[in-house]
Design a protein that fits this description.
By secondary structure, the protein is mostly helical. It has one domain (9-23, 41-147). Helices cover 69% and strands 4% of the residues. The chain has five helices and two strands, in the order E-H-H-E-H-H-H. The chain has a two-stranded antiparallel sheet with strand order 1-2. The longest helix has 22 residues, at 126-147. The protein is globular and about 50 Å long. The N and C termini lie far apart (41 Å). The model has no long low-confidence stretch (mean pLDDT 94).
Length: 149
């Protein structure tokens, strides 16, 4: 399996990560009204695993390139990935308008993970799928346990 990959910087993987992080950078600097996301987490071990998987995910998205992947273009998976980014940004806008409910929390949790997943599927980057999958599960547990249940 590894022979299908080459070590090569994938700028699009880094760009996707930075785009997804934009609302987080804003949130770090400017608290939202009714900002429940700043509460202490009760899932610290899950959060640590998510952080490790997030780093591994970004590394995998940025340095492993499948030799069979084509030049990036508007494929269905890339369009879905962009749509997930849009849903994520809309969820942040709603959150910053003071609306906090299960739908908003899930909107802040699931779409960014799916954006990474569909991007990696499009790029035929099976190496990235494992940390993305684990990160998604951990991120979902964090959101549900801390803010929905």
């Amino acid at each position: 399996m590894l022979q299908k990959y080459k070590l090569s910087f994938e700028i699009w993987g880094l760009l996707l990560f930075l785009i997804i992080m934009i609302p987080n950078f804003i949130w770090f600097a400017i608290p939202a009204p009714n900002d429940i996301l700043r509460a202490k987490s009760i899932t610290e071990i899950i959060d640590a695993a998510a952080s490790v998987c997030q780093v591994l995910m970004v590394i995998a998205l940025c340095i492993f390139r499948n030799k069979e992947s084509k030049k990036l273009c508007a494929t269905p998976f890339i369009i879905i990935s962009a749509g997930c980014c849009l849903l994520y940004f809309i969820s942040w806008i709603v959150y910053y308008n003071g609306i906090v409910n299960a739908v908003v929390i899930l909107g802040l949790t699931i779409p960014p993970c799916l954006a990474f997943l569909f991007f990696s599927i499009d790029r035929k980057n099976g190496i990235a799928i494992i940390p993305i999958f684990i990160f998604t599960i951990c991120h979902l547990i964090y959101g549900v346990v801390n803010f929905i249940v």
